[in-house]
Amino acid sequence: MSLRVVVIGATGVFGSRIARRLAHDARFELILAARRAESLEALYASIGDARLQVATLDAGHANFPHALAALRPQLVIHAAGPFQGQDYRVAEACMACGSHYIDLADGRGFVSGFEQLDAQAWRAGCLLVSGASSVPALSAAVVDALLPRFASLEAIEHAINPGNRTPRGDATVASILGYCGRPIRVWRNGGWDEAHGWMDSRRQHFPFGRRRVGVCDVPDLELFPARYRQVRTVLFRAGLELPLLQWATWSLAVLVRLGVIRDLARHAPALRRLSERFVAFGSDVGGMAVELRGEDREGAPLHLRWWLDADAGDGPQVPVTPAIVLARRMADGLVDAKGAMPCMGLLTLEQIIEGFDGFALRTGLETVSR
């Protein structure tokens, strides 16, 4: 029997990719949900799967729990960000109608606080998973895979830098702008310290070259010090391919820190449109790097760098792949977990990388120093 799946935010940058990858798969009875009927109809027509269903759905409407229950979902995939500032109404509505739940959240508070729903999820017999995306699902899977090589782990520093031609929606831009220039609590040298969004930058090595990245606020900064208790430093950075846009964003972060700009995120649509004037420049090549430093089993220094290279505009496939892989494994009866949790330990690195098949995504591992 097919798993009945509702994709919320199906017409967005990430939701549409989830929809296309789950369509034409007999394991799923797929319902595409979004706020605008015309966008849904256009997506439906472009996918060309007659089995698809569409439904207009607004998670902010008072009638949302009843509207969702009427669709009779067995699994809901929530891709309607940004998740910074959202509450848990979608997950709670899922429990009320007995549905499992997966989201692509990268909001630190949203994902790190998600376990508060654990007792309710157990009573409802549901699995609720938050952060089934590049962070923390993929990043944690990388650390879990490399950790056995270390006797002691000193630092985890990871970064993402998309190609300039990579599609970006208002929600993604708003999530970045929301912490630019804002104080961010980071675990550094064995204690909590403070950095500022998009600042504390450095040039990060990727397979395609070096790009500048600055500190960003993601769930890993809260979750990793608790998950990997020996680690003394956890930092995450992100950046933009074009130096002009990177430094422009840094300048806006400075203005926020100085109090000149109070709410940068509300300018996301205008700034996203402005950035698209430069889309002809740069490339569609982006990537991710996860670096671990510590000591190996012989007590010698060890520095490993896992990398991901995304070409041909396939970068946005990376953040949706953990949710897709998890949904497929649920449809195949391979997941029996219950409760509410961040997406850490549910998927192995090998399983996620297998989900990259068919896309211009390469991964590798190198020893930076011993």
TrEMBL record:
Transmembrane segments: none annotated. Residues 5-105 form the Saccharopine dehydrogenase NADP binding domain. InterPro entries: NAD(P)-bd_dom_sf (IPR036291), Sacchrp_dh_NADP-bd (IPR005097). Gene3D superfamilies: NAD(P)-binding Rossmann-like Domain (3.40.50.720). It comes from the Bacteria. Pfam families: Sacchrp_dh_NADP. PANTHER family: CARBOXYNORSPERMIDINE SYNTHASE. This is Saccharopine dehydrogenase. It comes from Dyella jiangningensis.
